[in-house]
Design brief:
The protein is mainly α and 115 residues long. 92% of the residues lie in helices and 0% in strands. It is rod-shaped.
Length: 115
């Protein structure tokens, strides 16, 4: 009987060791999964933060490009207006020169010799 009791006790101890090993394995795997989940969550959050930053930078660059385009268009318009004003001024100068020449001719003032 003592032999049977000792064998039963050994078997129970072996079974208890196996159960404890399984529980330890399960808990360790669960802890590792939790740590991995935390790391994945932190990585995901970091990626989302980077994505938001990139989107903000992209929209800032687009706004700057739009401002530059508007500035370029405004400068082109101003340049065209200046050219038109210059052409009108040149025409006005030619007309004035003709009138002065005409007045000089009528008044008898000698004209300078053109070269």
């Amino acid at each position: 009987m003592e032999q049977i009791n000792a064998n039963v006790i050994y078997a129970l101890l072996v079974l208890l060791g196996a159960v404890m090993s399984l529980i330890t394995f399960y808990l360790g795997r669960r802890r590792d999964a939790t740590e991995m989940g935390i790391k994945d969550g932190m990585l995901t959050q970091s990626l989302q933060t980077l994505q938001l930053s990139l989107n903000e930078m992209k929209s800032s660059i687009e706004r700057i490009n739009n401002k530059m385009d508007m500035t370029d268009e405004r400068r082109e318009r101003e340049y065209r207006d200046i050219l038109v004003a210059y052409a009108k001024l040149e025409e006005s100068y030619k007309s004035l020169h003709k009138r002065v020449d005409s007045l000089e001719y009528r008044s008898g003032v000698p004209q300078p010799i053109s070269r």
